[in-house]
Each structure stands twice: as structure tokens, then as C-alpha cells.
# Entry
Amino acid sequence: MRLNAFVARSTGVSRRKADELIKQGRISVDGQTAPVGQIVNSISKVALDDKPLVLPAKSTLILLNKPVGYVVSREGQGSKTIYQLLPDSMSKLKPVGRLDKDSSGLLILTDDGNLANKLMHPSEDKNKVYAVTLDRPLTQKDKRAIEKGLLLEDGISSLSIDITDKDCRKLRVVMSEGRNRQIRRTFFSVGYRVVGLKRISMGNFSLGKLNSGEWKSLGGQESVNDRK
# Structure
């Protein structure tokens, strides 16, 4: 295992932050200041500022049904954060992807950096499915344009759309990418405002019967509104 991955998993910091700690000379392996890129194994003695670091006994992976109004961050800056919905023991879990404050639905969190990277990597081509509500009916012309692809400031955005109500305001949207606020920006570019956005699945993971604010582990343990 690369040293930055070991430091990240044992402390809860990002790999970028772990590299910074290594560059600062704060990480040692077997009593020696460690270089960036070092490989460690199960018998390596890794320390941060001379304090031993230990990997979690096993990886944790949970699914959270994020409510509207919560930010995907440890620092809410006045807003509620998703970590207020989780017990203290899960404070080091990192989100796989993001949902903005005004969006809800499936959020995956883990302490396994390799798994997180795999789930996020474009080569995995994992579809994400959203329930979207617009401020006005979607026309067939605009639906075709969005499915063909629209040019946004960060590239082409193409979404697969199924209209799910007779008023043509409720949609099932499928995408394989995940650029910042991509769905909202795509509809806004042709004159629509997204008034409701909920992620219901991501690859093989789905919300299932999770209610808003609830979470569950893949091992089957579930906490309903467990507030520490």
C-alpha cells in the first residue's frame, strides 16, 4: 500500500493532505522520515508526529439518504452537515461524489480510498439516476436537445430523460458523469429551473427503503435517525 493511502485511511484526511504531511516530514516509517511515494506493508510502523498510526480493522461503506438543507462537508459554515446524521464513530468517512445543499438522496460514504476512487473513476461508467422536478413542463423539443447534448462552460452535457407525470414536470434523469451541478446547469441553459433533485441510485447502489436522514451499512446494520 502506498504511504499516502495508509495515512489517509488511518487519520481520515484526504490523500492530498496526506502527501502534504509526508512532504513536511511529519510522517515516519520504522523510525525514519518517510519520502513521498513510499510503499508500506502490514509490519511497517507508521507514525504522525511520533504518534503511531493504525489502519481501521476493516473498511466501512454506508449509504445515506441525504435530506435537503444539509451540506456534504464537515464544516457547515452555518448550515447543517451530513455528519450530524451519523454517529461519532463515522466522522472520518468520506463521501463518494457530492450532492449540493438543495439536493437530496443517495450518498455513499467510506473510509476505503481505493474503493472511493474506483467508484468515482470515469472508466467505471456507473450510471446515476435522479428524480428531477422542473418549474414548468418540459417540451419535446428541449428534451431532444438535452438528450442530444448541450454545450456548457465545462463541455458537452447529455442526459437521458424519461417523463414520469402527465404535466411533464417530473422526470427520471440518467447520467454517467457527475460534474458540478450538471443537471441544474443543463436545464437552466434551455430556460428551466430545477426545483427538486433526488439521486435514487448510483451504479449497483440504490436508496431502497431508506427514509430521508437514515443510513445503512452494506453489512445490513441500519440506524434510523441515530444521533450519536
